[in-house]
Amino acid sequence: MRPITIAALTVLLVSAGLPMAGIAAAASDAPRADELPTVDEILERYHEALGGREALERIETRVSTGRVVDDRPYTGAVRVTRFEAYGRGDGQWAYVEHGPEGDFAEGWNGDIGWRLEDGEVATSEERDRSKLAFVLDPQGPLRIREYFRHLRLTGVTTHEGRQVYAIESDRRQEYYTLYFDIESGLLTNIGYHWYIEQYRRVDGVLVPHRVVAGRKGGSVTHAFDEIVTNTPVSGGRFTPQGQEGGTR
Which of 73, 86, 134, 154 could disulfide-pair with 147, CB 3.0 to 4.6 Å? Predict the structure, then answer.
């Protein structure tokens, strides 16, 4: 994976009341400190770029199917497995990967987070604010402050030749910094090595169809083959019991 490069600030952010830590402007034509938008303005533009708040609110469910391509060299030969995922407007979600040695599944049913692996179920009362859950949630963009809390703009950087706003959350880790393309307004990365790509319109809303996670010289790619919205999804899909024995 190609890393996000960071250059020095060309303007002082102090005059705009913004913290100096973290990301910096990377080109002479980057926005000046007094031109930088607020976090709310960046998120509002993100919603508009996706199709608008009203269009997002109309998506009550999302069912996705696709492939997981694991080409990490230290795990052996390239492995391709199938996955399916379910998301509902109330925040419930489930992900199932059908591996050769059995299914792996995880999700949130509104009360507990859970994980099914090797036939064993582990649960937690803490809501999973994972990056994957955010992508699978049909209204994740509208709930972005729930997944990534206490957001603050740290500046402007470049990613593969394109300028992006960098926004940090309460996790204060580079792996969870949000990067929004200045030109398109879309979220392109969560952390340096988690790429959100191939936005395509589904029922009036742009939805990413490819998520790439860089891993030690390789990557794990989720390629979405089909995404269907507003189809009925039973509540059992979001419980570990509903995933046992497979969901094909």
Answer: 134
pLDDT at 28: 46
pLDDT of residue 38: 97
pLDDT digits 0-9 by tens, 37-94: 999 999 999 999 999 999 999 999 999 999 999 998 888 889 999 999 999 999 999 9
* Domain presence at residue 1: no
Number of domains making up the chain: 1
Residue-number span of the structural domain to which 140 is assigned: 14-243
Asked if residue 169 is part of any domain, the answer here is yes
Between CA 180 and CA 172 the distance in angstroms is 17
Residue found under tokens 């303007």? 11
